[in-house]
Amino acid sequence: MEIGLRVAALLIDIIIGFVPFVLVLNGMSWVVGKLGPVSFGLSSYLMLAVLIAWPPLYLSIPTALWGRTPGKLICRLSVTDYRGKPPGFPRALGREVLKCLSVGSMIGAILTLLQLVYQGGGWYDQLCGTRVEYNPYVRLTETQKKWREYHKNK
Asked: Are 79 and 16 spatial neighbours (Cβ–Cβ below 8 Å)?
């Protein structure tokens, strides 16, 4: 069950991250267009830098702060370190860079999927000392708890 949720969370993150990525590229093309003749040589390097840097940064900042990206939040998954807390920025950045390298290459994606199926975690999780946990229950407010208790005893 967790493997399907992990793949769904990754697809949601790709979809959600694609819209800001396109906006960043459009903004970069506007800035490069304002540079004039220098823009021809500089534009390809800037676009390549944004193309390489955006996915790991987009995925690692929420992972470092809250232990979840928007896709993991929707799928009720969280990334924790060995203490059970959200990983810090260096650990999250390393995890996401290795994950982008793995998922970006076809052989790496197949090997990672096989490892997820048979071992329950990716090699990037083992290397960075993180794990992905499934949280089936959400925290209820006091009103929700009282409402459930009232209807249970009714």
From this structure: no
